[in-house]
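Second attempt. The first submission of Ribosomal protein S13 had a stray character pasted in from the spreadsheet, which I only caught after the job came back as garbage. Lesson logged: always re-copy from the clean sequence file. Corrected sequence (84 aa) follows.
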Amino acid sequence: MAICNPWLEYLQDCNLLGIEKKKQMDLLHFKMRLADNLINLGRSDNIKRPRGRPTSASRHRLHLLQKRKRQRNQSRIKKPVMIT
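This time the job returned cleanly.
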């Protein structure tokens, strides 16, 4: 129902704009195009991810992130209090 209602609106818009029936998408093609757009949502062709082995700079960043994580975890550990 969530897909059929927008498809029906699409058909109404096509009829209002005078688009021929042959050029209108059927439900299957509408679903495929919707799925493709949802999969690619948020992706940018301009952003290219590096391939291959990580560089020394990325290793350094990873080391810093791991160090911060260890520091946060150590601050959460409660040390026993000795009562005298």
